[in-house]
Amino acid sequence: MISTLGRLGKVEIAQEVFLRSQKAGFGNNVYAYSALVSAYGRSGRCSEALKVFQSMKKAGCKPNLITYNTIIDACGKGGVDLKKALEIFDEMQREGVEPDRITFNSLIAVCSRGSLWEESQRVFSEMQRRGIEQDIFTYNTLIDAVCKGGQMDLAANIMMSMQHKSITPNVVTYSTMIDGYGKLGRFEEAISLYHQMKDAGIRPDRVSYNTLVDIYAKLGRFEEALSTCKDMERAGLKADVVTYNALIDAYGKQGKHEDAASLFAKMKGEGLVPNVLTYSAIINAYSKGGMHREAKQVFEEFKSLGLKPDVVLYSALVDSYCKCGLVDDAVEMLQEMMQAGIQPNIVTYNSLIDAYGRNNQGDTPEFLRESTINPVKDGPLVPESMNKVQHLQDNSGDHVNILAAVSVFHEMQQFGLKPNVVTFSAILNACSRCASLQEASVLLEEMRLFDSRVYGVAHGLLMGSRQHVWGEAEGLFDEIARMDYATGAAFYNALTDVLWHFGQREGAQKVVVAAQRRQVWDNPFWLSEQQFSLDLHLMSVGAAQAMIHVWLLDLRALLWEGRDLPHVLSILTGWGKHSKVAGDSTLKRAVESHMLEIGAPFHVGKYNEGRLVCAGHVVRAWLQDPRTLDLLILRDIVFPSDFPSQRVRQPEIRVLSFKELHMGDSPG
């Protein structure tokens, strides 16, 4: 009865039955105690399991092999560290109880849950040394531990070695491997293994399907993701919350917020209850679309259900406000977050850095002019009075937002958060809005202190030293290509923006070519017999302008090969009447202005103001004009070798702490 209740998760009732049996005089034995230990262990309540284990020994009941195996298994399920599990392992041997296969399987499971892949290898080796036979559970648990450690090549070798033991990999083996490849961004290997599993006659389970949906979605291959969902339904497995979360998250990151919202509604219509991850994903989708009101409505719905927001949810909402330039609202949400006892994470700080960078053009942001919110203890400090803000403005003038971005960056580090690629993208975005290269160097210097490689590439390209850093840049680009779409696209957009902004046009062109080769933007060149199209709507201003030159030079090369152009050529900026991209028309204006600058014969489409069009024969004539080539070839500005790139000279800017910045007791 105790065992059955434990398997059903009815631990309190199991405890009641145990106590009743003891009162009746027949519960004080190893079997009853072991069953109760197992009941607590199955529910992940390891501390209670350990208490029962200790009381059992005090009552004079000597634990047997089943008891020891059960308590070691409870350690794994309850997140107890390996040290405690090994202490119990040593104790059982001192008591003359020999460990068996289940004992070692449980120890490997403890390693797996702690992502201790090296320790799992040692436990496995000891198991082999003792001549204890391994089974499918042994290998699956070992592979899981190694995959969690990111050692996919080793995991693949372990999977191959199973055949020598006449142990056939099952759906759990394959699902674990596919998930491991997916988490490392090795998507093609994950997809290939999925097809190998099907070829081997192994029917995918829900985990396999959901992992594949997630991978296709992250790659932006939505048709294949949806096709996998249909395969899943045909196999008798309906899409669950995990499936919908993967799709909503991916649609949001690709800027397809309407599709994300449609899935969110469909999910609720099917009776599925959204969880915290679902709400975070849909809020993030609205954030990417600049739809802060919709994001706020979803957040209020979330709270009305009695759910508690976590750092991911709060960060998504902060990001939503930041992207719309509503820095005051972002800070208010940050205050609410910290008052709820939730510490901001790297995403929260990245959003603030990016917001200050975007505000660097024009007036001081409203947040720094008018905010009177008192700081939360140990949290991001905000100005306490307008007088202190005025003091800051008097000393540092137009540089106030750069100082704010740097100060947020410093505070992030004080909380022990390590900057990532998204942080550096935000800093590069801020650089592209600086009025001078000297000013931008203050921000770049911050990057150098934490990642000399990213700094070296960005600084080298910015200073026109491409030939010296391009090899390093290619290696960095390869690493970024293994990250998710949104992270990669943001980095390339930010890097090309800052290069274009400071006149390194050829460098910007080489960067977008490198991005195109790594398929960062989904099919920017669209070709058919009737039309050639360039899709810029996911690119930044600098990336879009550089890509225009790549495209036009490609068209010119086609003409020189003797091929003709189609009837219509078009350039999609994504800012038309039916656009899914939110925000102002900065990209559209920049593209139109640049086309006028180089004399390209494109004009705004009659029925779609977000598209520039031109007849093929007109473009052909323009490209064949000898004067056009010089307009299309981009060149870099070459700075003198002694150009002051490391420190701002006039006006001098000293990096302040966030507290100094807002307390006004330090020189500008």
TrEMBL record:
InterPro entries: PPR_rpt, PROP1-like_PPR_dom, Smr_dom, Smr_dom_sf, TPR-like_helical_dom_sf. SMART domains: SMR. PPR repeats lie at residues 29-63, 64-99, 100-134, 135-169, 170-204, 205-239, 240-274, 275-309, 310-344, 420-454. Residues 534-617 form the Smr domain. Belongs to the PPR family. P subfamily. PANTHER family: OS03G0856100 PROTEIN, PPR CONTAINING PLANT PROTEIN. This is Smr domain-containing protein. It holds the Pfam family PPR_long. It comes from the Eukaryota. Gene3D superfamilies: 3.30.1370.110, Tetratricopeptide repeat domain. Keywords: Repeat. The keyword rRNA-binding does not apply. The keyword Endoplasmic reticulum does not apply.
